[in-house]
Amino acid sequence: MLTTHFRNKYYLYRQKVILFVVIACVATLSTINKAQAQRYDYKRVYDEFYDDKAVHFGFLFGFGSSRFNISHSANFKAPGDSAVTIVSPGNFSFQVGGLVNLKLNDRFDLKSGINIALYGRQLNYRFTNSPDFPPELRESTWLEVPILLKYKSMRRGNSRMYVDAGVKIGMETNVRKNANSTRKLDTRTADLSLEYGIGFEQFFKYFKFTPELRFSHGLTNLFIPPSVNNYARDIQGLNAHSVTLYLMFE
């Protein structure tokens, strides 16, 4: 009887040991699963039905550099008091405006909008036998309408890349003139530019943020020879060129 009682007593202990082992295993597995869940956090996809809408609107800011691409005439570096070098350094430019994005299919969009741009393009003359003149500066405000075809990659979570290319129509609306200057840089007031760029779309909870680096090459010769500036004989053409970082919000 004592032996039986002794074995029964340890049988009860064995049940407690098994129960303890099971609880310990469950607690260990729970800890492991929790650690794995913390390691692979779930990332929420914002505005997941964004691409189901055909049209989106937004606004943008642009910061960049603008200058003239200079084409020299046959008189450049001719004998006489002619300019040795004519350069157009890059000047700061700023843009603000609205944008519209039209979905064509899963890969292509059509982008457009209306922008107000501020440019300060200039020419610097350097001479052989005479002092250098102050820069010829043309500070102006332009109204611009870009028309771009956009190719976008597959969306990965809350981000994707894209490239775009197209044309931009520009119209000069205002010019700052210096009344004390006898030499005034005069250019045409309409331009057509070739544009292309690369951008990155990042989706947030309430909006989509898109930085884009875009290059613009003017196709129109903007140069108008001034009658009072004989140094203009060294110039045949001026084409606008700019590099802009756009910050877009939709």
What attributes characterize this protein structure?
Porin family protein; alpha+beta; elongated; 250 residues; 1 helix; single chain; Porin; eight-stranded antiparallel beta barrel
Report a brief summary of the structure.
The chain has 250 residues and is of the alpha+beta class. It has 1 helix and 9 strands.
Structure characterization notes:
With 250 residues, the protein is α+β, with helices and mostly antiparallel strands. The protein folds into two domains: 1-42; 53-249, Porin (Beta Barrel). 15% of the residues lie in helices and 52% in strands. The protein is built from one helix and nine strands. It has one helix at 2-39; strands at 55-72, 83-87, 91-103, 108-127, 136-152, 159-176, 190-203, 208-218, 235-249. An eight-stranded antiparallel beta barrel has the order 1-3-4-5-6-7-8-9. A hairpin with a 6-residue loop joins β5 (136-152) and β6 (159-176). The longest helix has 38 residues, at 2-39. The radius of gyration is 34 Å and the shape is elongated. The termini are far apart.
